[in-house]
């Protein structure tokens, strides 16, 4: 990632890839420090593949059902990423749990966006979890991927209020607006070297820290 070369990013999707779209759009800016050079899906029918191809980005499926186990699928995924000299992997609705070996191979080089304010509400059905818990703030988190699910060091978060009368769908609609803003901002911090992983914490250079409120939206 040295010199003027932009960070080479691969996006992994399983479906329509709405967060993928927001990353692709952000990366069109000349001063964005990353370029999206590959999109991979574990499902051939993933709708986001066609969008990526329409944007001129190489995109293909590696069908997880074609492999005997997770390790073989992860090996194929790893081979595809290394063949394209990928610097950083962004998960965007990628609905597969990796083997520890794959996570270790990409340690410090793989980001995910999760629809809750971690460490609250890991796993699935996060909006229902938030409503059931009665929290007044909900949101999304960009974090580094570690072997434990939804537990990696946090890069950035955005919050939304939980309103009376919310159901999981209305809350999800409010959160995804913030996801589409947060993920490109977090990727820019990491790819531009303004956020770096040190141990189990993310450190920020100068005024890039989210603590200034720039990445926290209500």
Automatic annotation (TrEMBL):
One of its GO terms (molecular function) is phosphoribosylglycinamide formyltransferase activity. It is an enzyme of class 2 (transferase). Residues 8-187 form the Formyl transferase N-terminal domain. It holds the Pfam family Formyl_trans_N. Pathway: Purine metabolism; IMP biosynthesis via de novo pathway; N(2)-formyl-N(1)-(5-phospho-D-ribosyl)glycinamide from N(1)-(5-phospho-D-ribosyl)glycinamide (10-formyl THF route): step 1/1. Its EC number is 2.1.2.2. GO terms for biological process: 'de novo' IMP biosynthetic process. GO terms for cellular component: cytosol. The active site is at 114 (proton donor). Keywords: Purine biosynthesis, Transferase. The keyword Lyase does not apply. InterPro entries: Formyl_transf_N, Formyl_transf_N_sf, GART. It catalyses: N(1)-(5-phospho-beta-D-ribosyl)glycinamide + (6R)-10-formyltetrahydrofolate = N(2)-formyl-N(1)-(5-phospho-beta-D-ribosyl)glycinamide + (6S)-5,6,7,8-tetrahydrofolate + H(+). N(1)-(5-phospho-beta-D-ribosyl)glycinamide binds at residues 17-19. (6R)-10-formyltetrahydrofolate binds at residues 70, 112. The record marks 150 as: Raises pKa of active site His. Catalyzes the transfer of a formyl group from 10-formyltetrahydrofolate to 5-phospho-ribosyl-glycinamide (GAR), producing 5-phospho-ribosyl-N-formylglycinamide (FGAR) and tetrahydrofolate. Belongs to the GART family. NCBIfam families: PurN. This is Phosphoribosylglycinamide formyltransferase. The lineage of its organism: Bacteria, Pseudomonadati, Pseudomonadota, Alphaproteobacteria, Hyphomicrobiales. The gene is purN.
